[in-house]
Amino acid sequence: MSAVISGLHIYPVKGLRGVALPEAAVTPLGLEGDRRWMVVSPEGNFRSQRQTPGMALIDAVPEDGALSLRCGDDVLVVPRPDGNAENIPVEVWGTWMQGAAASPNAGEWLSERLGQSCRLVFMRDEQTRPVEAAHNGGEDHVSFADAFPLLATGAASLDALNEALEADGVPAVPMDRFRPNIVVEGLAPWAEDGWRRVRVGEVVFRMPKPCTRCVVVTRDQRTGETPVAGQPLRTLGRLNRNGEGIVFGANLIPETAGTVRLGDPVEALD
């Protein structure tokens, strides 16, 4: 079976729910619209499902240049900050940059639902941050994503993990636990770990390193709860780890631009 894209997802707000798409434009920062918004503390530090599992309960959907937030029956439409919006210092994993502050009612709405004081910020094009120097080809940038522009996962790797989980008496988990941008069907289990360069549809990517995983994969992305303590992270650690930790999926940096679509072929180049 040839490898093809079987899933495409963006996460408009870092840490909130994702959106499935039939196709997506690839920009230097990743899939268009991915993680350009972020929830931060009053001090500007990013909020994450690691410490704030309730973020998994909030949908975030792009809507005609604005952002629609939904939690249950409550909906708030947030305009994209204009040129007059305040720029504030914000942080992702120790890197500080500027973010454009959204309207105060967005922070109030999020604070009420998450039970902690929040602000919402948007990353304008000129507010990007460089990929860490050890993996930067010179002009590589990333949005509010953790470290790299995109994440790809293999469906067969999830199948292998779920087989091991069920053997341990643990329920299988869906792919959304790993919050990928691109899901690939037709690879051998863990084959994506060995990519160096890969063509996805019409776009070529570089793979700097596999993605190390954390406690977020234990969160049910529909409820924010952890159904089985430590799982699937514990079983994954037995199956697939490297010198940096437990891994699942491949981080990607675009080398070219273009559009990727469901059903597009995926081919390892190196």
TrEMBL record:
It comes from the Bacteria. InterPro entries: MoCF_Sase_C (IPR005302), MOCOS_middle (IPR005303), Pyrv_Knase-like_insert_dom_sf (IPR011037). SUPFAM superfamilies: MOSC N-terminal domain-like, PK beta-barrel domain-like. Residues 118-269 form the MOSC domain. Signal peptide: none annotated. This is MOSC domain-containing protein. It comes from Rhizosaccharibacter radicis.
